[in-house]
Amino acid sequence: MMMLYYISSMLFLMISSMSMMLSLFMLVNKFSYFMEWNVMILNSVNINLFIYMDWIMLMFIFMVLLISSMIMLYCCEYMGHDNNNIRFFYLVFFFILSMLLMVVSPNMISILIGWDGLGLISYCLVIFYQNNYSFNSGMLTILLNRIGDVTILMSISMMMIMGNWNFIFNNKMFNLMFVSMIVISAFTKSAQYPFSSWLPAAMAAPTPVSSLVHSSTLVTAGVYLLIRFHYLIYKNEYIMKIIIFISLITMMMAGFSANFEFDMKKIIAFSTLSQLGLMMMIFAFKNWELSYFHLVAHAMFKSMMFMCSGILIHGMMNYQDIRYIGKFKYYMPMTFSMLMISNLSLCGMPFMSGFYSKDQILEYMFLSNNNMIIYFFLLISTGLTVSYSIRMIYYLMFKVLNFNSLNNISEFKLMNYSMILLMLMSIFYGFMMNYLIFNNIEIVFLNFMEKNSIIFICMIFIILNKTMNYIKNFKLMYFIKYFFGKMWFLYNFIPLFIIFPLNFTKNYLNYYDKGWSEMIFKNSLMMWMNKMNNFDNFINNNNNNILMMLNLVILIIIMMMLI
């Protein structure tokens, strides 16, 4: 069975290498391919199969397949002793196929098939470990993602007036409702507020799933969809303001929640949520190239961060609480080094992969003419990113190991080998992409306060963290930790979105479908129909008697008329 993992890993690595070369070739020569197959024509609606190949799509496929290749190699050791590793392999394989189907086609029907495939297989992967927590998390995941599926279906129905579902040729069609449906679909898949609660809950899945699905592929599908529709979204300023507002709220909420969380996988999930908000925000400022740059750079080091946490959890006998894990650098030095590289890249350490995208985003925001509230939210969110990264490193590096005294924590060679290529990408990929995509020479002049504002924000957070230890009000401290640890009570609000429509339909059923109109029209109509039916049966069953009675009545009437 392990041969399937090896073969698929080599196959994905080979295809990703070819995609990278072809993407660079198209980027340099500035051209793209468009292939079409007319399947059938139904009532003047053309049903076609399209494949649109440009450097954006091929670079995204390179990123997906490279991470998938390393995950398959990683699973050889991580899932080697699992009884259901065959089922796990097929689920991951079909997830990758669904992702590719969504990416390569500019047709809304193909996107819907891939979109539904992502949601369904993601649900199957979340409930892979069969327990109550996984089942509840899977239910929350598929219910919130189903909202995006419905909005995609509604957008398909709106595109029928154009005669086809190919959005490449319909770039002149601006419909506010259509664009709103696309944005809502992207919000649900990329876990933006108020649909954010499913992403931390989805950490019930195996760690390789979190590394592949919830860091680089599934959650970035929403951002990729917005990038494909950027020419329509940029025509409406109100939609862009809504995207900015929601993305800033998502960044703030995820940053605060990560600073009050102790589950290692949930901390990384909140980190992913925060970076998705950053991608959405810079996209809404009409800079989709920079959003795409941060998307592909972030996927490399974030998937490696999940893989490092998986090795640690695997060695700690499935403990995920960072309060139990300490002195990590002595037990797994290579894994700890890779985790440090991914954390530094996340923080925007100079000349790491994440530095080139995050630094350009901050410089672009400082040079643009925006509201001070946007600057404030952005600086706070960026400072929170550095804060929770340092917090996690502090717990893993300096805290005492609060685990069993008798343990056998050591490195896993095959898992470490699978992360070496991602580690190199986390260091050099940002520089390569910056040189290829943003190769124009730009000189940015920022003053001292703007350039060092993130450092000042981090120092303020450190001071606030120390002062919180001296707050004697137990109720206030408990409320603060509970409020930020529960995603601003978003877990309590999400059932309201489900309960309110159900109560509305229940009241509609009671007041209208089973109300007085039902009693008057339906029951009275049925009563008269039953009477007419009984009368007809009576006539059919007593033909001779009725004929004699009718003759007698007619005879009496005639005699009365003669008299």
From TrEMBL:
Keyword Lipoprotein: no
Name used for this protein in its record: NADH-ubiquinone oxidoreductase chain 5
EC id: 7.1.1.2
Annotated ranges, domain NADH dehydrogenase subunit 5 C-terminal: 388-561
A single Gene Ontology CC term: mitochondrial inner membrane
Membrane-spanning segments: 12-35, 55-76, 88-105, 111-129, 150-168, 174-191, 212-233, 239-260, 267-285, 291-313, 334-352, 372-394, 414-437, 443-464, 476-500, 545-562
Keywords: Electron transport, Membrane, Mitochondrion, Mitochondrion inner membrane, NAD, Respiratory chain, Translocase, Transmembrane, Transmembrane helix, Transport, Ubiquinone
Subcellular location: Mitochondrion inner membrane
Domain NADH-Ubiquinone oxidoreductase (complex I) chain 5 N-terminal: 42-89
Upper lineage: Eukaryota, Metazoa, Ecdysozoa, Arthropoda, Hexapoda
Residues annotated as domain NADH:quinone oxidoreductase/Mrp antiporter transmembrane: 105-382
Keyword Calcium attached: no
Gene for this chain: nad5
Organism: Nasonia giraulti
UniProt main location, coarse: mitochondrion
Membrane topology listed for this record: Multi-pass membrane protein
Residues making up the signal peptide according to the UniProt record: none
Superkingdom in the source lineage: Eukaryota
InterPro entries: NADH_DH_su5_C, ND/Mrp_TM, NU5C-like, Proton_antipo_N
Biological processes, Gene Ontology terms: ATP synthesis coupled electron transport; electron transport coupled proton transport
Molecular function in Gene Ontology: NADH dehydrogenase (ubiquinone) activity; NADH dehydrogenase activity
